[in-house]
Design goal:
The protein has about 300 residues and is mainly alpha-helical. It is built from 19 helices and three strands. A three-stranded mixed β-sheet has the order 2-1-3. The longest helix has 16 residues. The termini are far apart.
């Protein structure tokens, strides 16, 4: 595919399209106010989105295209009018999402192929986020495989966008048995980096990520670092994890009490009653329970 060297405006005002300007019958306007003169017929032939849009806007010469960046729309119009487009790491995710939004299936396939063939530690996670938004399974699967294999390198990449991953995507990566890491410290680094990017909203999610740690592989020095870190030691939501039946609270609490007898049931009130020191003790007991063999005991009355 040839690469256009001109903007859409230059393309529209030159070559064969210059003589077709008299037939221009509409203009697209972005939220930023940028306007592009176009031919309805040309766009309608390439996209069901535009075909439907123009059908409901027959009497409107200027039509607003919301939620589309001006530079991205410029590139897409270049593609529609010339069949060529410039793809790189900077515009790939936006073009992927926008081509899906505008129902440009042929461009979407081009973006998908380019993404898979040119995946790096820099664009892997942004592509995973973008492809998950539009449910492009081929890219999603490739991104997951790449991230699992190159996770250590992604951690060392300053602009990998790990902190922008949705919780469910990060959890799926960290809990995978195929995650290629030197040690569990790498998993812990990812948890800390993601949580500290937005402490106010992510502290409640930290307990979920902590369960991704392979406790049998957590060495003593790492365990000490985990327990002393503020996202554990000062996190009231750690206690909330223990009260969630999905985490086998009854069994886990029995194990905790047997491992750390100072946590008497009478003292286990609301999470807010715990200061940083007490919370650290509770978190430590939780870690011990997760690392120790536990005899499963059914609790018919949900009391311990």
């Amino acid at each position: 595919m040839s690469v256009p060297s001109k903007s859409f405006e230059e393309i529209f005002n030159s070559g064969k399209w210059e003589s077709m300007q008299q037939y221009s019958d509409a203009a697209l306007q972005t939220d930023e106010g940028t306007t592009f003169r176009i031919h309805r017929l040309v766009l309608a032939q390439r996209s069901i989105y535009f075909h439907t849009l123009f059908s409901y806007n027959l009497n409107h010469e200027k039509i607003v295209i919301s939620n589309v960046d001006s530079k991205i729309l410029d590139s897409i119009l270049q593609y529609i009018y010339t069949g060529a487009i410039t793809l790189d790491e900077k515009n790939l995710c936006d073009l992927l999402i926008t081509s899906d939004y505008l129902l440009l299936d042929d461009l979407l396939k081009i973006c998908e192929s380019f993404a898979i063939q040119n995946m790096t530690c820099t664009n892997c996670l942004p592509l995973l986020i973008a492809s998950s938004q539009i449910n492009r399974l081929a890219i999603i699967e490739h991104c997951y495989r790449y991230a699992l294999v190159h996770f250590e390198d992604i951690l060392e990449t300053s602009n990998s966008k790990l902190e922008e991953l949705p919780l469910e995507i990060l959890t799926k990566l960290l809990e995978s048995k195929s995650l290629n890491v030197i040690s569990e410290r790498s998993v812990w680094r990812a948890i800390v980096s993601w949580t500290e990017a937005d402490n106010s909203t992510r502290l409640p999610r930290a307990p979920i990520l902590l369960t991704c740690l392979r406790h049998e592989e957590v060495e003593d020095d790492l365990e000490a670092d985990i327990i002393s870190h503020t996202i554990v030691s000062s996190n009231p939501h750690i206690f909330g994890l223990m009260l969630n039946e999905e985490f086998n609270f009854c069994t886990m609490k029995r194990a905790i009490l047997s491992q750390y007898v100072s946590l008497e049931p009478d003292n286990q009130n609301l999470p807010c009653s715990y200061g940083p020191h007490s919370m650290s003790e509770f978190a430590y007991a939780y870690m011990l329970a997760c690392k120790s063999p536990v005899n499963l005991i059914a609790c018919s009355d949900n009391k311990v």
